[in-house]
Amino acid sequence: MKTLFEKIWEKHVVQTIEGGPSILYIDRHFIHEVTSPQAFNGLNKRGIKVFRPNQVVATADHNVPTLDQHLPIKEELSRVQVDTLKKNCAEHGIELYGLGHPFQGIVHVIGPELGITQPGMTIVCGDSHTSTHGAFGSIAFGIGTSEVEMVLATQCLMQSRPKLMRINIDGQLNDGVVSKDIVLYILAQITASGATGYAVEFAGSAIRSLSMEARMTICNMSIEMGARCGMIAPDQTTFDYIQGRRFAPQGEDWEKSVAYWQTLFSDEGAAFDTEINIKAEDIEPMITYGTNPGMGIGVGGHIPGLGEVEEKEKPSFEKSLAYMGLQPGAAIKGTKVDYVFIGSCTNSRIEDLRLVAGFVNGKQKAPGVEVWIVPGSKQVEKQAIEEGIDKIFEAAGFILRQPGCSACLGMNEDKIPAGKYCISTSNRNFEGRQGPNARTFLASPLTAALAAITGEVGDVREYWKN
Amino acid sequence: MSKQINTIQSSAVPLQMENVDTDQIIPARFLKATSREGFGKNLFRDWRYEQDDETQPKQDFVLNNPIYSGRILVAGKNFGCGSSREHAAWAIKDAGFDVVVSSFFADIFKNNALNNFLLPVTVSEEYLKELFTAIEADPNTIIEVNLPEQFINIVSSGKKASFDINSYKKTCLLNGYDDIDYLLSIREQIETFEHSHS
Fold first, then answer.
1. What ipTM is given for this predicted complex?
2. In order of start, what are the domains of chain A with their CATH numbers?
3. Given CB atoms, is A55 within the 8 Å cutoff of chain B?
């Protein structure tokens, strides 16, 4: 009896070092401009080439502008970083979907949409949200730059085996609740360190009912619980998503692959170190009020009062609320927002854009609110235009920008100004994440769309009722 | 950067915050470099300075308090959570620290630290509290971190705690080996593995 994780892990162990980590073979390695240059420098210093360039795919996403991408990048350091990636990929024979390429986009959006991400694989990238790819039933996790260098040099990585956790979500989701709410709810229950040291499998009927894109949102944020990786067993929904994509197996290979993928699930009775059960009916539309993703509440709820916070956590809690300019015990509903950011590797896929467009169709953004829609990839952008979604956004007064990580991490010029409130479909509400002294509310695309229309935090269920 | 760690005796800097994420350690706008050097000056940038201005240090931030110094950083639980940016480990090391002590480290940060000869020492909540209390009472308190024997010691009181590290990593840190050297040495075995791995 084995878990999904064990089945994949064991198939990839090249060697286990006595009293140390395992050497894990890596099937796919994604790289981007920010965490790879020092790794290539390392290879050059050692005088070696990339070991398996065909298993590496590169894109430029973190540091790219999201307007006028056809022009040279204005900011010099960003331009140098993007050019360095280009040069490194050319020297080492790595496929690059850089600026201007029809496949360019956020690394965790393009891998799945191109069919590169497949069940049973080990996948790494120098980015913590690599956990996204686990939605296909793969072991996928973020690594540091020294580890990027290791994988470039040997297609292997040193890893100690994590403990195993399963989170079961069973039942019927409430109206207005989408996958982002599920993951924010889990985070509010188990905290931002609740899964540290674990590989987490998400299971249960509520997970099974989700589309692939919705599943990706959940696995994406498993890192916010501290998890090494998040994963969901592949099923017909997974196979249907992959079939026909550019790098998906074809013909006989397809049949063989599906037959193997169908064996990838946790056997009945397989042992987990920890198991958590959640009722889907308990989950409300969620929003965060603090400065880590575990600080979330239902949109109808109140920020915890000081009396509800453990003594040793008070300094961090008070610092967090002071940063956010919010009061302990206050209701979150009705809080004014200045910016709405719909994008990031968490929620920038076509389903997210459709959800927002469907909600705002025929409506106008609230005065004084700035709304940025940043598609996850060129392909998502193209599809949005083909479906006329861009017209809906334009009519609503939203700005449809070009693909990249954008205001999720404020590395390019897309920063939220100091002191301003941004409701964001991204993954982190850390201090300064979206720009120095910017204040972030994490929420679903639906809750963000509502705020774009009303200019404040609200409950989408009440809006529908009225 | 020293590529070896053995026994360190030093005073320590107490950062009494939980969930210190890597965006705080080094904000994203400072990740545009293509080399590993020079990140130390932007360590905890937005906690250190008002309005991003180096001439306006925030007086209440511990790294700006001249009574605290040393090669050991002591911090609250879940240190290094969030982004996988190794720049966080580079910045801490570049700012002169060789050890970070916490009751709990985020996984990716821990690996990044070890790969940069920055020793993450995990202690119990109780021992962490003792460390904070001792440093607050006397900022010159000397802490000994002994890697060969795997213990940490508040020298004045003799209060010790052991810490875990896998024997492979310990050998690497003591001798200045890195993982890539090892992996390169088994490339033949990796190629053999590839033949049987579909």
1. 0.96
2. 4-274 (3.30.499.10), 285-462 (3.30.499.10)
3. no
